[in-house]
Structures are given as C-alpha cells and as structure tokens.
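To whoever is on call:

I kicked off a structure prediction for a single chain this morning and the downstream step that reads the tokens threw a length-mismatch warning. I double-checked the sequence; it's 188 residues and nothing unusual in it as far as I can see. Pasting both halves so you can look.
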Amino acid sequence: MFWVILKNTSINQNQISKIESKLSAEVKLVVEKWRNNFRNGRNPGIRRLAHKLEIIHNLDALAVMMLMCQSCYISNNEKDAHEWSRYIYRYMAINSEFFHISGVKEEIFEKINEVLLQKIKYKNLRYTYPLSMYSTLHHYLMVGLSDIGNLDYANIKTREIIFHARKSLNGNYGWDLQAAFNPIGVVA
C-alpha cells in the first residue's frame, strides 16, 4: 500500500479508507486500538500512535502515517497534518537501518517529501530533514550503537536497533543527537 500512496498524489477520504483496509494486520490492530480510545472518550494523541508505529518496521506502518497526514491535510486540519509530518520524518530516521537492510533507496525519502511532506505546513512552518542526512544517520547509528552497552551491532536485532535509535532521537544519549537527528522547522 505504501507504493500505491506514493503513486497517487491526490488521494481522497474514500481512497484512504480502502487503502487502510489493505494494510498489514499488525498495523491495522495498532490503529484500531488507538481509534477505540477516541471512541471511548480518551484522547491518546498523535504522539502515542506514532510511537507505537515507530517500532513496527514495515512499509505499512509508514503508509498509515502518510495516510493519517493526508487525511488531516484533506480535512484542513493543518496542525495535526504538521504533527504527522514530523513523525513521518522521525519514522524514516529511526527505521533507516531497516530501510537500508531491505534495500529501500534513500531517494524514496525524497519522493515522500515531494509527494506529501512539502505541502504540509502550520503557521507558515514545515518540517524538513535533508536527504543527505539519512546516510549520515545510518553511519552514526552504527557507530553510536556499538558504543552503547557494548552491543555487538552486527548481531543485534532490528527491534533493538529501533529501540536505541528512538532513545537517540529522544535525547537519551545526549542532546546533540536529539538536535542532529530530528526534523527541523523551516519557513514554508
């Protein structure tokens, strides 16, 4: 479904529902649980769903984030669309190792930016993350993870890599990493 979204630049609400129904069971379960919280009067927020999706390393997790962003954009909810764009950039950064192993080229990030993220703005600001930074991020994650708790980077599982990448992006290993690897706001 990720490729369908990238090829179709003018998705409407009906298409979003159809695409969502074809996502992997793991992703649909996470999204449905999040929506049930809304139906039950709780407000789990975008951050909670985004963090749940960050640990699912498949393209359907990224696809649903793009769908959520597109849905907010279509309904003129600029603030939430802007927030989703931030988490899409984070997802791509956190899962850079997964994309690297899977053979997904960095140019795909540029395509996501071109098709969706460049048009998302709130109060004349938008998030951005330079394409060149993904290869730099991948390199620094390999170097950084080898120094964290004496991990044998070559033998740790993808979920562990994602766990440590998230901690790095959240500033747990130093604020310099948080500043370096999070998307930045620029004037649209």
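Update from on-call: the warning came from a stale cache, not from the record. Cleared it. Sanity check on the structure: The beta strands are 125-128, 184-187.
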